[in-house]
Amino acid sequence: xxxxGDIIKGFNFSNSKFTYSDISHLHFDECRFTYSTLSxxxxxxxxxxxxxxxxxxxxxxxxxxxxxxxxDTTLKNTLIRHKANLSxxxxxxxxxxxxxxVSRGGNFIRLGDIWLQMPLLWTENAVDGFLNHEHNNGKxxxxxxxxxxxxxxQEKSPGNGRPGEVIAGWPLNRGRYPAS
Length: 180
Prior knowledge:
The protein is of the alpha/beta class. The protein has a domain at 6-118: 3 Solenoid (Pectate Lyase C-like), CATH 2.160.20.80. The chain contains 4 helices and 10 strands. A 5-stranded parallel beta sheet has the order 1-2-4-6-8, with no helix packed on it. The chain has a 3-stranded mixed beta sheet with strand order 7-10-9, with no helix packed on it. It starts with 5 loop residues before the first strand and ends in a 12-residue tail after the last helix. The model is unreliable at 169-180 (pLDDT under 50).
């Protein structure tokens, strides 16, 4: 059965686990997902609008064809994959929270109050997968950062010590991030 944009409005999914679920083509409007886990979820063309997705583990499946969209949605302290489209998110100032704990490991950078996934090791495959949007259907860490609304231009600019400094500081031959 093919779903075509079913709308789920006003539900509270806080503290829920959607592990290995397929929520493709659903539209979640005015829903709460606080402290929920969406791990290995297939969410092709899933829409989250006017929703609270704070403190969510959002590790959608890499097999997701069309990335989910976030319209007027907060993602405070949420872990986001590096190929996400953040064009409609609402960012706030980051707090002093530690990065999320992920069983498969990983490193993260701050993008406003969101945690953005980075590779554990900067191998040749990681560089290609995270930085080369031409090999990844137009998706990369830099395209994700660039997808932020223009009102967050300070988060897009390498001059503020974010992506440019972070990426430039991790040469391939070192393999691991510098100690914090």
